[in-house]
Amino acid sequence: MAEIRFEGVRKNFGKFAAVDGVDLVVDDREFVVLLGPSGCGKTTLLRCLAGLERVDEGRVFIGDRDATDLPPRRRRIAMVFQSYAVFPHMKVYDNIAFGLRMQKEKKAAIDERVTSSAELLHIEELLDRYSSQLSGGQRQRVAVARAIATTADVLLMDEPLSNLDALLRLEMRAELKTLLQTLDATTIYVTHDQIEALSMGDRIAVMNKGRIVQLGNPLEVYDNPADTFVGGFIGNPPMNFLEAEVVGNGSGSGGVAKLSGGSLELTGETAALAGHNLLLGIRAEAIGVETSAADGLVRATVIVLEPLGSHNLLTVRCGEDTLKVSVQPDLFPTAGSDVWLRLEPARIRWMDRDTGTAIRTGTEAFATDTAVVTS
Amino acid sequence: MALPRIRIGRALAYLAAIAISAFILAPIYLITISAFSSFDAVYEYPKNLVPSDLSMESMNIFLDSDGVKESLLRSVYVAGLTIVACLAIGTPAGYAIARFTFKGSNPFQLALVSTRAFPLIIIAVPLAVTYLRVGIDDTIYGVAMAHVAFTLPLTVLVMASVFASISYELEEAAMTLGCGRLSAFRRVALPLALPGVAASAIFVFVTTWNEVFAAALLTFTNRTLPAQMLAALDTSPLPYRLAGGFFLLAPALVVIFLIRRYLLTTWGRVAR
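Output (structure tokens, whole complex):
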């Protein structure tokens, strides 16, 4: 087991910077998810760590060893590929034993490791089969078993669940998380699925255009996005952003936020907001919905209502802005009717409209007061 | 009304398939039964399509003729040499084209194909002169070398598409599991490419086994079977020719039948 350290890592493909100066430290036994849209460089970063790509600049450390110039086989890593990469010409047993045989383990030791890995993934019954006789989910299990059978310092996973169907993915997600908790391996997990990232990682590194734009525990990243990209990428629906203007009362705290559809009273610190073109960011579930007017509420018109079972998703128009609001499942405002929105100042995340980055006022509250994730 | 039309279409397709098969199979059949007929039966007219008396007479006439056994052996030797050399060079070359983007990769492939654009007649004289100068004329190594030159381009291209159809991630997986580049190739890519290697070997074998022009041009005493037959053709009796024809046909047919499945899967993949 080992710590992983990226120092100023760059990787170019031609003139395109796939990884554009990444610094990242993953602690020993930590589970970090690299999250980002396709083409953001997350897989390339992982491949740089695996030694499958050579970095153009910067260093990569695994444990206390500088691994930058080591070939993959000397890095003591194990990797699960998106396509699973289960060897088609070998039986499942030989697939899982492959790494151990390369390490020249004794036959009895190999047998024991293969059996225990297969048991962990519940594929003991399949050891005699070829890859072509397996379903996608089973192949996936073989790939994971093969990776954990070797005694690697670091476990790398490149979108391991993305080729499974939705139901299987849900099942495998929980199982994989349980498995990784028992393994205690330092793990880097690449995905473009924000739900996967939120549900599995100790920390999430959100990547965009070859850079890490935010690193934090899942709730922090979800609740306090570092910029409009993170707010828009993470969460379903994405965070709402409304153009806003804040008029302070001179004392640095309190003031009035003017939106295109109304205005609301601010109570917390506002000093940090002065001099910025502002965007008001707020999560769909952080908006309260009332059916009658009251002080401090903003009027909006319902465009469409989508019942989703556990809650209802409203698309509403508030002045010039369109918002997604989630409400309790028993509230059914008809399209075209008016509702009144409660935008809790503590749940508002201010963004600079020009740079897209978050402006911290110091009074942000989390959805839950205990937004502490123990790792 | 749609159903009868489909039926008619199917019937026509089958008819065409039968006609084409018959066109190809009829001579093969005739050669085969004649090769195993008695001397008299070969000259019989009208021909008995169902052979009544199988005999080794024609075959024996052929095999006992001067130089036939030796040339048969030489043909086997040349085929073996050509296959080994072709695969030894063609497999890595195909791998390089499939896996690496290097400067000149496209011109290289074009050059490979273009070697097939020159008819042998055109290069016959320069080839013979070169062989005489170097001193490899009238040797089976010389013939094998010429055959390698004919078959290598296609072997390289076929092997390239075979390797291109094998996911590189498999080799990368092997590398993360403790393989170097070479051992990842040997343990993963090569075993998966074996059907393609076999298909290439067949192609090379069929080509070299039946190749007559270069063999006849470059050898005088050390002739391969086709060259030997060509030399003896106008002075030999009909049974000799038919038995010889059978020897040229049979190995190729047998090998193709044995390995047909691989041929289809591999080259089917190439066509995709």
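The domain at 67-235+255-271 of chain B is CATH 1.10.3720.10 (MetI-like fold).
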